[in-house]
Amino acid sequence: MASLYELKDLSKRYTRGKESITIFEELTMSIPQGDFIAIMGPSGSGKTTLLNLLGGIDRPSSGSVECEGVRVDKLSEGKLAKWRSQNVGFIFQFYNLMPTLTAAQNVELPLLLTKLSGKQRKERVETALDVVGLADRKGHRPRQLSGGQQQRVAIARAIVADPKVLLCDEPTGDLDRVSADEILETLQLLNKELGKTIVMVTHDPSAAKYAARELHLDKGRFVEAKAEPAQ
Amino acid sequence: MNDLTLIRKNLFRKKLRAILLTLSILIAFLIFGVLGAFYKVWTSGGELAADDRLVTVNRINFTVSMPYAYWSRVQAIDGVRNVSHASWFGGYYQDPTQFVQTFAIDAESYLDAYPELVFPEGQREAFINTRTCLAVGEDLAAQYGWELGQRIPLLSNIWQKTDGTASWEFDICAIFDGNTDEYPANYAIFHYDYYNEALAFNQDQIGWMVINTTDPARNDEVARAIDGMFANSPAETETTTEAAFNEAFANQFGNIALILLFVVGSAFTTILIIVGFTMVTAINERTGEIAVMKTLGFPAPRIFRMVLAESVLLSLVGGLLGLGLAWLMISGVAEAAAAFLPGLALPAEVFLTGLGLAVLLGLLTGIVPAINAQRVKIVTALGKQ
Questions:
Q1: Which residue in the set B288, B297, B379 is minimally distant from A113, CB to CB?
Q2: How far apart (Å, rounded) are the C-alpha atoms in residues B173 and B194?
Q3: Which string of b and e fits B349-359 if b means at least 16 CB within 10 Å?
Q4: What is the DSSP-derived secondary structure letter of residue B265?
Q5: Which residues, at least 6 apart from B306, have a Cβ–Cβ distance to it below 8 Å?
Q6: Which of A58, A81, A99 has its CB closest to that of B298?
Q7: Looking at the predicted complex, does its ipTM rise above 0.90?
Q8: Which residues of A touch B297 (CB under 8 A)?
Q9: Cut 0.80: pTM above it
């Protein structure tokens, strides 16, 4: 499989007061297109930081993040925003939907950054909601939906602009087991049927089993734990 | 959906807060609109003044009279084209509460001095030639339902006749109007001679003189000549341009402009603080949502514009409602007040200034939250969730 991401000698350090905290040092990895990776590791191991670097919402202290030949870490803020809108779909633990918008409007949000017409946007939104099985809830506001339904709206929002990669930060962390399995099955479907590359951060070993491979981040380096999906 | 949908939904996400903010802005602009309309009509005398008109009053006070003889003496001064005079009569119709603003004048020279007064055909001549004629402004005639040919009595609390009565009989032989809507037509004029001959006291005195100069450039020279002519006399004079006289008349109750500026300024400063603080708080509450929008790819300048637009929209909604309400209120009382405040209306310039102020208020109250929103760090904001 062709490589989507190339991370070379990636380091990330934070300064807290006079103290410098190293999250990881000279991390090198490759993420092929169509991969579904679960990143696990103890709290503070840098899982979310790595996800942020992949998504271009944080910058490395040194090293490079390359996505299809684009040096993401070198892009200006404006170009980075545009790159994110075209290439990355984000799924958060707490859904992060806009409370004042309906499910359909939440899904439409990323499309406001495109040049699609209103009609085209509407078609895309309906398709995305259909994929996650919420076409009949498009007029509902987030507070009228269950946690699992809200996360499915968030997935629809993440895929509506047809990004290459989905970055999921604890996508089932706030859900019961049944809802979590539904979300993970949806992600698996997106990976297998639509070929979306998925990088998922999780604490949950049973969630990680849905991924094609698991990576354990510990003390700034990866330990590959599994090669084939269990489910 | 578009950016405006997002702006509108964010603005009215907390309905009570939005309503209270709109209401507070509405009140500020209502005050601005109403006071602006009154200020405009109150000070319109200065704007309606002609460049070539001077007013000469007694130096002590404009309510103190001067000898009638001054009138003919001023006519001889070089640079003077026309001189007229007027005297305050006041009076009321039937009941002391029905006040009538009335002046005793020299008809021909007065109408020459004020070409703004428009008479229907034949009525100007009728007024000049009829000794007992009362020429009535249209607004005043409408107020009391007076018609041409009607004989009416005006009563005075001051001016008694030699027969011991204070009832003055007049024939309405002319109804005039101003040449513009703003020009007052809320008063009446009659012949000085008719009044002077019947006066029980204070005969051969006039209230003030109105002088037309041959050239506005000679105003100062003529004014100095007039005041110099009566210097060291028992009735010294003070001559100013009509605009200055009208302004001084309007300001006899205080510096109206300063009072209005203080009232409106206080209202706007209060609103600026309230709305500004509330907008900062509202945007701070939405830091997480702004971070999510940035994550999705909304560029910082677009977020800046959206927050600023939200503040401007709030201000415009409140401002337009306030100005609209001011217009309704002013329109409601304009007819009833026509006799006292002719031309009372919400002027276009006050409305447009109000709109400009609304945009400015929106920009001022929105700039800090917009900068804060633009600067939101995605990682920091999402990390706080």
A1: B297
A2: 15
A3: ebbeebeebbe
A4: H
A5: B3, B6, B7, B10, B373
A6: A81
A7: no
A8: 81-86, 110, 113
A9: no
